Amino acid sequence: MSDERLDPRVCVPLVAVHALCLAAFWTGASAASLAVCVALVFVRAFGLTAGYHRLLAHRSFRCGRGTRFALAWLGASAAQLGPLWWVGHHRLHHRHADFAGDPHSPAARGLGWAHAGWLLCRKHVRAPLEAVPDLAREPELVWLERRHWLPPLALAAALFAAGGAQLFVWGFCVSTVLLYHLTFAVNSLGHRYGDQRFPGRDESRNLPWLAWLTLGDGWHNNHHAAPSRARHGVGAGELDLTWLGLRALERLGLAWELR
């Protein structure tokens, strides 16, 4: 029987970073700290969707090893664990979307489970290496997986050194929590609310407001219809900022073969 007891290795850090956001009432806010907060939500969202999601999980484009590691480091700085863990669970989600074996389907366990409950239990602490044999052969990604705490720790330390407690609280804690729930919402709300441009076997949906805030990942039904596409916003008016970012990397010679 699977172990769905809460795992303190995940719960304690997750609760701690949420609790630290309350320090904003003590530190106050400034225009600079708010700007850094917003910027780091979107910069790290790009690392997650361009690096962890579209590159490592789905091979939607190609790039050099240096660019790949930089994108993976940026994704890891979002404090959503390592690339093998993240990609492995995402591939299992696509393999079993909204059926048994999907780690975070709201269809069977509800929105709370899909949003955050699944990742708090011991069952899902281990990186599912059987789903990422390709990544497990890449030494730099294995190194980052084992030290997934290093990018967020380095970012937090840099923010504190640059602006003290206020910049640490807003630039790291608040922005990290906001990005947590935007990412989690794709798993929960993105399988319950919105439109289905491509009806299929799963309940994936397109949510425009979520797509704008996740740099394109909220076009979730589009993505499930063609997971290997680098572009998720395929219809008129479906803004996909990550696609525009990848096109910019392509023009710079840092990415190629965008699907």
Task: Give a short overview.
This protein has 259 residues and is mostly helical. 57% of the residues lie in helices and 2% in strands.
Written overview of the protein:
This protein is mostly helical and 259 residues long. The chain has helices at 8-20, 24-27, 31-57, 65-76, 83-95, 106-109, 111-115, 139-146, 150-188, 208-213, 220-225, 241-251; strands at residues 62-63, 255-256. It has one domain (8-256). It contains 12 helices and 2 strands, in the order H-H-H-E-H-H-H-H-H-H-H-H-H-E. Helix 3 (31-57) packs across helix 4, helix 3 crosses helix 5 and helix 3 crosses helix 9.
**Uncertain runs:** none
Largest sheet: 2 strands, antiparallel
Structural class assignment: mainly alpha
* Spatial sequence of strands, sheet with the most strands: 1-2
How many domain units?
1
- The quaternary state of the protein chains shown equals single chain
Total strands: the figure is 2
Number of helices: 12
What number is the mean pLDDT? 96
Shape: globular
Entry keywords:
two-stranded antiparallel ribbon, 2% strand, globular, 259 residues
Topology readout:
Elements: H1 8-20, H2 24-27, H3 31-57, E1 62-63, H4 65-76, H5 83-95, H6 106-109, H7 111-115, H8 139-146, H9 150-188, H10 208-213, H11 220-225, H12 241-251, E2 255-256
Antiparallel strand pairs: 1-2
